[in-house]
Design goal:
Four copies of one chain form a homotetramer. Chain A is of the alpha/beta class. Chain A has two domains: 135 residues, Rossmann fold; 181 residues, NAD(P)-binding Rossmann-like Domain (Rossmann fold). A seven-stranded parallel β-sheet of chain A has the order 8-7-6-9-10-11-12, sandwiched between helices. In chain A, strands 2-1-3-4-5-13 form a six-stranded mixed β-sheet. In chain A, α12 links the parallel β10 and β11. Chains in contact: A-B, A-C, B-D, C-D. At the A-B interface, α6 and α7 of A face α6 and α7 of B.
Chain lengths: 337, 337, 337, 337
């Protein structure tokens, strides 16, 4: 019996970045590996290999209806960058029973950790008071009266309650927080079962001492948080912007921070790299981070492990279990960023 | 029946800082309150009031054998600063069956929170990369290869496993850390029951990616961590100094940080305020904090609550339960700082 | 805009059994409800209503390709008995993009609770010693030397690690158990992430003090546990049979119990009702239960809640989230019991 | 330097029952062991050995003021049966700075496990329905409408919130119970910190579906639960009697069970062994257990481990940490049972 062929084209990532040796060996034990180079896969090569390919794993998989028509053996397209790309014809995939899978779940814990780091650093003034210390202007045994807070028994708000929220909730549990979550894609009971309290966006904004933006960008949530929303937040409360800047009016947020209305910890920016003279750079009461929520290199091999885990199951006729399957209903709702 | 008299002299703290209104009311429901002013209690006043006093609550209670001899009704001395002061004649208290109680447990959660904030901020490069961002020198989607790490599945070391460790362990649990703890005052099985692995100091130093100094200062642990100890730590590992600087050779630590051998998050200093030109101020890979681990003002009313809780029990003939009772064996072992 | 039509035919269950008033009201706020009676839905009625039906909810939904051909608006078939019935043409459903959903997740917690109850009752001799007490033959402060054990720090085995296992694991966590799990449908890393240790069937049998049978019946696991398997279990260890008797050779199990090789807690039987003279009825060291793992009537309204939750999402164009979606790969693997 | 002498007289327990080999070896590494036989220690022997003894460990230590006067080196009396005996002159011990320690904490987990086993078995009808099954009178897929309940999201009551409650609470946490606790020896905030809700006895009785009696017997709680109290409980609710029968009017409880007002799981009896014709023996809806909450033999070596742990600390001048220290305030409050 011939082994299924797996086409590996991880560019912009590299092979060693995402695959540990043992995972590549495991993959080779049940599949034949094609390409497997760090360079971009040329179109001609893709067109010639796809006919035999059972699973196509890529940094940015290109999959038009035309290409799919040439791929009778194809059962799975797996992206290893972190989100469903617009270069795939999803309808054609669903029609051809090709599963489209995303490695996004490999980042949940790491991103949740960064969100907690930012919540704690913001609430306890770690960055602001370090800057004061560097400037020999620190005050001893002092708290920032408007900005400091403890997470214990605190009111927390989530905007979005998907896989990052699922990873963040266990980290917050020992602090006995009350977490209100706004997520129009989840029934109230699902939020309750996760341990959140379902809430409207307005309630989340008004009631929370710290608000974490965790939602994926959709056609409906662009600029969800603007001047009015920041004005409705509690004075001195903390905004943690961790999923995408798509959800905020960045200028309005910058204003809200500079005026002292809120503090902010920001990992994502409207353009990256961000303008070296951009106005948030010197704003007080900010924590600035250059898209580093998923930056721990060592943990990126979790991607390869999940890819091989799911291919191993699929080779045995069992559905994938670790990666995120594209859902026909949701694909049209995602923002094409 | 007359109500017992409770002498409140919170200086250097203030009445409203530590007592919520409802706790003072609760206290007054079963006891008569004396002094209860923010100013220092003059010695003459103390000498005249102590004869009737059942419980003496103070920022820095002075209690010589002489004073105790004048206090036939005294059953409890309670300090509200955070550690057992050397101004008490403990032997005389034990002989007279006067309980000496410390409010230290009121700080456990807050200090544990700061320790976790520092562990996460250190491991995820939050402060260093913020400084780079301020200087428009940030690198995008980047990790600091030698210094960054995730707490998930990480090797952690504790030096000291008392009440702060007890509050910190539940915060670390969702990260699935392996925690090695060195604490000569606890049996191995007590450490295991807490969820730590008992270890020698040397093992803790060699095996851990992050080490948290949590021990109270004793006659035996002064300068426990010196040049040799820092050299035995893993390159790039993180030292979190949270309990007292008494445990480290501060100059050697500064050297170890400046050389790039370790990174450090430091909340306590050999002298406070720290020298405005002190050498750690501009060291790379540091997080500097001006003794702020217990600085959340709002949470300081936990002290008053615990004081009234225990007095309420004692008034009914039940032992105190919330504050820390001085133990005859340990008092002589504490460093007199 | 017309509201989607939902056909409710819960027989053999009843309307009030599965739907709380507030859930029916919630359903009616966005959908038009058809039938909604406790009696069986006659075929003619089904055939006449299905043409307008958007979602078909039934105790035992019948859905041939022929019926589906008459149902152009149908988007979901939801069963409310607890498992995917063989009366549905799944292939036709997948081809027509009709989601098939099962209410099985509504039972996870209740069944997990029963499994824990049986593990504890078995390990602590609750039933055996109660029987002795009834017979005035009890021994005081005594343990059953071969059969009694504590769950604390115990070696536990799972056969199957699906949704019941997922609900059972948090109940076992405070006991610090080491749980080995055998599940050929899950990658090792998925088991590890759940908190189990992946193991072969043989390892599970040999290493465990208590083994819980949690797997759904498949074409491959019929009679998985026979005489040889029971012989390889530790003497006096406990078998908890909770999912389906399909997985065991019931006669061999009865022998193993009667010989004293193992003890057993049994909730499912090869035929139900079980033979009034069946040999397991008087066997020692057994706990016998008449298929009661999901018997708590009050909790059955969780089914209706999940049904309405998912219909509410689907009406808004969001995928279902609470019920179990039939997977094309798995349907052919289930045993047709 | 001479090693301290430890007198081991475990009768009615035996040496091997409570001491694992490695713990005895550990003890011998820092102390000289005296007696160490299973037989009762004769008084003459005790009188002759006590003069040199540093720690006296016994099943039922006898320690009159007279004996203490002959024991200038004595620093600790440790009982290994499970409660503070009335054969010790506690006042003399406190005056002579002799610590009196109880091994009760060694039983917390085991007893909590039995309490949970009984709560689950009661709520899920495990014993009653097993009895029906034995009699071929079982009903299939049936619940006992008045008596069955799930622990999930349930209202639970504790009478007493000491060390057993502390071990039981983590076992209940995954069930999301609301636990009301009545304990006059603890401040409300201590109960809240444990995760209970402070309540009056009356509230506990009225609001709970299952009530667990966990309190130690005191001079004040004899017969705390009588006919009026059982009448105020919810119909069909469950009483778990696990600490001591001292707290209940046993005849009234028997009546309440026989009338169908409550169900009961009973591990402790007014006299043990209990009358072979006693009226509770054939009562319906009972779970009867012959004082077996701490009966797991294997776990009894936890006693010896705790004894050696604490002696090891004390030999190094550190206070004991694992065993329970007698508190001057509480000793006079315990019932002399």
């Amino acid at each position: 019996m011939t082994r299924p062929k797996v086409l590996l084209a991880p560019h912009m990532r590299s092979m060693v970045e995402i695959f540990a040796d043992q995972d590549i060996e495991r993959l080779q034990s049940f599949a034949e590996v094609l390409w497997a180079k760090d360079e971009p896969l040329p179109d001609t090569e893709l067109n010639s290999l796809i006919g035999d390919t059972w699973a196509y794993v890529a940094g940015h998989p290109a999959a038009s209806a035309e290409l799919l028509a040439k791929a009778p053996k194809l059962k799975a397209i797996i992206e290893v960058a972190g989100s469903f790309p617009s270069t795939i014809d999803y309808r054609a995939c669903f029609d051809n029973r090709v599963r489209v899978l995303s490695c996004a779940p490999a980042f949940g814990e790491q991103v949740a950790e960064m969100a907690l780091a930012m919540m704690l650093a913001g609430g306890r003034g770690l960055v602001a008071e370090h800057e004061a210390f560097r400037a020999s202007a620190e005050e001893w045994q002092h708290d920032r009266p408007d900005f400091d807070f403890s997470l214990y028994d605190q009111e927390i708000g989530f905007i979005g309650a998907g896989s990052i929220a699922r990873a963040l909730l266990p980290l917050l549990r020992p602090f006995r927080c009350r977490v209100r979550a706004y997520d129009p894609w989840l029934p109230e009971s699902a939020l309750r079962q996760m341990g959140c309290e379902p809430a409207s966006l307005d309630e989340v904004l008004r009631a929370s001492r710290a608000i974490v933006v965790l939602a994926v960008p959709t056609r409906e949530n662009e600029g969800l948080l603007g001047a009015n929303q920041f004005a409705s937040m509690q004075t001195g409360s903390l905004l943690v912007l961790i999923s995408r800047s798509h959800l905020v009016d960045f200028d309005a947020m910058t204003e809200a921070v500079k005026s002292g209305q809120i503090q902010a910890a920001i990992d994502v920016f409207p353009e990256e790299p961000y303008d070296p003279a951009g106005p948030i750079r010197q704003a007080p009461n900010t924590i600035l981070s250059a898209h580093r929520a998923a930056s721990i290199r060592k943990n990126r091999q979790a991607i390869g492990k999940m890819v091989v885990d799911d291919l191993e199951m699929m080779a045995r006729g069992i559905p994938p279990n670790r990666l995120l399957s594209a859902q026909p209903e949701l694909i049209p709702l995602y923002a094409s960023t």
